[in-house]
Amino acid sequence: MLVSSHSEQGDELQVKVNKLSSTKTQLPYDYYFLKYCKPKKIQNVAENLGEVLRGDRIENSIYTFNMREEKSCTVTCKVPLDAQAAKDFKEKINDEYRVNMILDNLPVAVLRQRRDGIP
């Protein structure tokens, strides 16, 4: 069942996060496996049975947008990385992991450049 939401200008839209996935390894990780900025309390926010059956772990994040309002990029938090955390990030980058985020029940797209340099 598709639920339509009606948002007015200025309404807050919460970005949700899912797993880290890679077409290279096929082994998913929980989004917060890496040392990302986290909300004070991480909550499971799955909205339907299909998400649960697929193994999705849709959780809240610290990222928000306001409907139809322009906003420049801002730093939401800074997380110092120790040697192990930096190694974990490097390994996931090398294994071509991508974050999966959801905004207003739609996947958030990330521009990805091909290895040959063509966008």
List keywords for this structure.
119 residues; alpha+beta; four-stranded antiparallel β-sheet; 2 helices; 4 strands; 14% helix
Task: Describe the structure in your own words.
- The chain is an alpha+beta fold and 119 residues long.
- It is built from two helices and four strands, in the order βαβαββ.
- The protein has a four-stranded antiparallel β-sheet, with no helix packed on it.
- It starts with 11 loop residues before the first strand and ends in a 12-residue tail after the last strand.
Overall 3D geometry? Answer: globular
Question: Helical element count?
Answer: 2
Major β-sheet, in short? 4 strands, antiparallel
Hey, roughly how much beta strand do the residues contain?
Answer: 15-25%
H/E series: EHEHEE
Q: Roughly how much helix do the residues carry, as a percent range? A: 10-25%
- Give the end-to-end Cα distance, rounded to a whole number of Å: 36 Å
Q: Decide which structural class fits the backbone.
A: alpha+beta
- If strands are numbered along the chain, what order do they take across the biggest sheet? 2-1-3-4
